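Batch manifest, entry 17 of 40.
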Amino acid sequence: MDLVPALQEPLRQPLKSVLGPATAKVMAEHLGLLTVGDLLHHYPRRYEERGQLTHLADLPMDEHVTVVAQVADARLHTFASTRAPRGKGQRLEVTITDGSGRLQLVFFGNGVHKPHKELLPGTRAMFAGKVSVFNRRLQLAHPAYELLKGDAEETVESWAGALIPLYPATAKLESWKIAKAVQTVLPSAQEAVDPLPGSLREGRGLVTLPEALLKIHRPHTKADIADARARLKWDEAFVLQVALARRRYADAQLPAVARKPRPDGLLAAFDDRLPFTLTEGQQKVSREIFDDLATEHPMHRLLQGEVGSGKTLVALRAMLAVVDTGGQAAMLAPTEVLAQQHHRSVTEMMGELAEGGMLGGAEHATKVVLLTGSMGAAARRHALLDLATGEAGIVIGTHALIEDKVQFHDLGLVVVDEQHRFGVEQRDALRGKGKQPPHLLVMTATPIPRTVAMTVFGDLETSVLDQLPAGRSPIASHVVPAADKPHFLARAWERVREEAAKGHQAYVVCPRIGDEEDDEKKAARKQSAEDEAEKRPPLAVLDVAGQLAEGPLHGLRVEVLHGRMQPDDKEAVMRRFAAGETDVLVATTVIEVGVNVPNATVMVIMDADRFGVSQLHQLRGRVGRGSAPGLCLLVTEMPEASAARQRLNAVAATLDGFELSRIDLEQRREGDVLGQAQSGARSSLRVLAVIEDEEIIAEARQEAAAVVAADPELEHLPGLRTALEALLDEEREQYLEKG
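Output type: structure tokens
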């Protein structure tokens, strides 16, 4: 929140003599810090106490870390390599310790001389680098380091007191360099304008913004840090909630056509056809949606529910209600495979009700058309005509729906499936095709904790489907530690064969495709001694499929599916798998969403540690969709103590998506959550933790609603208006306007 001119001063020009152009350039390019205000709001991630050391036992894999530790020993080795064939290669191995654990540092080639002189046993220093595994031990290759002399004037001066701030850093700019830059601009903090209304700040006993900035960067005590964080959390929660409250307020002023289904129309005819009754959850959520559709301003509703909880049916009933009123409904899917699948399942569920204008079509029938980028010209022309004339009440498609050529007769409802895969611009373009703003229903199968929904989708009303329909089978999940217990992996392939023998099918999922493009990139990266420390590349579909077909799954019908195949080929592979003509489908995550093959009972996820928690949960939801129980095997080579293994254990331990999404959030930084929702914009959250700070978010939402109701333009709160402008830079402003 770059609040006033002093804080909007660019880091590169006026401060050239202070920060140096090189530092300013790295800050801009790698950390997105452009102004004095940006730098002041780049808060320390944590603090080390002068006399204490970091816990080396808890380091996260593959992350850039800064640790404070003591050198235990240092040894110089010589070895032969391609660059130094006569045994002249040099490698310095330094072991650092904190009393709880040890960590190895390694330096190669000419990079050994300086650390060999400086990192003597007993030396204390800060080390920064990326944590990797070599020979099953954690290590930092070529870390940057800063010696902690303690007595030197300059060090004591710049670290002011007993607490050393450690900043989110990059390989190009270490934490201690950021700390020195912050020291330079800290006097400007006095000029920060306070975005919180005075009554709110005093009522909650929060310190002023300048004081909070001083205390977060240069705390003398832990109480200073607590005061600063409490205040800065409120800033983030409140400003974000004001943005969302203004958006809700503006939406409530927009006109929309009220859509009320006829008692004897298409929806009633469809309900009569259903061979089962809706679950209580489906009935409740449908009521919420129908109430919204009946109002004269646009519905903005998020429908979230577990994989298989029947969201598509709820969405289809909403679409039929709109068709009943003479309107049209569009369903936007993220991939062609999924659009085709939705089209198939919707036409099957509707039967003759989907045959409008055809012989044998029912009295209230409408047309359901599919529109994707790979359709032939004639079929496409036909579909476009049906949309323009209103002949087609329902259209299901991919991004192709958004093109300029697509005209609707009367678009009344837009349903977006798997919202996180759609850019805001795309949703906006589709909504722009209605004569008046259409109603919007967003569906997601990634369960979202209430707090995240309030923070990311705070402008949407939320409906939750948490009941699974009767007849869904339980899914057993197990972690398969392939490196520690190779016989477990062999047993996994036996289980696949056993299921195939019973007439069932299996998925095997890999993180990568593995065609030439990947391999060329890999070859382009020169292998050096330092690269030894890097992990092997993730397993690839094309490699694994070949190995399985010739090895443990020999004799079974194995096919591959991935995103770079031609649409027709993908569709053919899916059709064969759905028809039971393939035993094992080796695929990338293209099968993550919406693929429905009830006969598939096993899923083996290779390199499962390379996927996020919610992705694993999504993938797992592809099995156990029929009457036979499902089995999900998470294969990993990560060591038992690693954070990745704990994440996999958590997935194996529960089928509750809401619980998993909380775990996922606690383990990741919130920026990922907000970043993906805010059209890729840098997250505005730096100290607010969406899960922990549930109360603050809920209270900030109430306060924000009251402020906006009393003063929608924020005329009496210039500080808040400035903070909003800083939060909603152009990209975010568009994001919030478009929803």
